[in-house]
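Worked example

This section walks through a single chain of length 341. The input is the sequence exactly as stored; nothing has been trimmed or padded.
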Amino acid sequence: MRYRPLGRTGQFVSEICLGTMTFHGGADFWRNIGTLDQSAATALVARALEAGVNFIDTADVYSEGNSEILLGQALADLKVAREDVIVATKVRGRFGPGPNAVGLSRGHIMDQIAGSLKRMKLDYVDLYQIHGFDPVTPLEETMRALDDCVSRGLVRTLGCSNLAAWQIMKAQGISERRGFARFETVQAYYTIAGRDLEREVLPLVEDQGMGVMVWSPLAGGFLSGKFTREGVKSNDTRRAVFDFPPVDKARGFDVIDAMRPIAEAHEVSVARVALAWLLSRKGVMSVIIGAKTPEQLNDNLAAGDLKLTPEELATLDQASALKSEYPGWMLERQSTGRAPR
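Given that input, the structure is written out below as tokens.
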């Protein structure tokens, strides 16, 4: 297992992060993602830690809080030393029927950090992330509340997820101006089947010295190897019942066609090639894997051992390249001849 910087914090996290959205299942929607009970969840946590994973991601809304409960119990049962694991969770989603049980207001943030700590049986969260943008609450109010979480010792590092580049940069500007703790990480959707992050967010991340945590690196199971142009090989995949994130399937199958011979040459799965490609990308700090079985987990964990050749990477880059958009094509044109010599 290799380890990469957690933003500018001086800490390091494993390049593979264990996602816990498959834990418990809760009711209704979450059962489409996964229904692992405590025993199965604990076994996955144990295997990940054994492989060198020191980074685990969850969220307050996953299975209505039950994912955090199962994760906390797993860490307790395994007697994991607190300093040996970086635990990340999130706030923003609805956690109750009331009008204030959602969003990024000071009240909701303070309620939810207390709830997350209680459910996970922890004294602090290593990485606390806003789970999206709240158009109702001013960013300054949100950043002040998050800064208070840090100053009170409830949170050590801040991150954000699912924001536009301008929103991230606005938050960074507020933090710098007011002396607040700033975002050190961005959790975002990024995959060889969907490279939109490269347009605005990745350049911002590089400029700001942030780290990217990738969610849904296999495009919601589209790159699992179970999907072909002819149909689904198995209904045991969440995309068969929950078609998300959006994927341009025609383009996606072209990418799979480019990956398949590379996978065969290395005698590995297409999924492992997709993960290895992501781990080669500049700005990627850690890739979140959410397995349902030990077999899936082991295959995903092995992605860090797969070394793709420059020629293979070039083939994959070409097959998955983004269509040029404005102002990107103009920026590229005007930058010609201005690169440092």
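What to look for: The chain has a mean pLDDT of 95.
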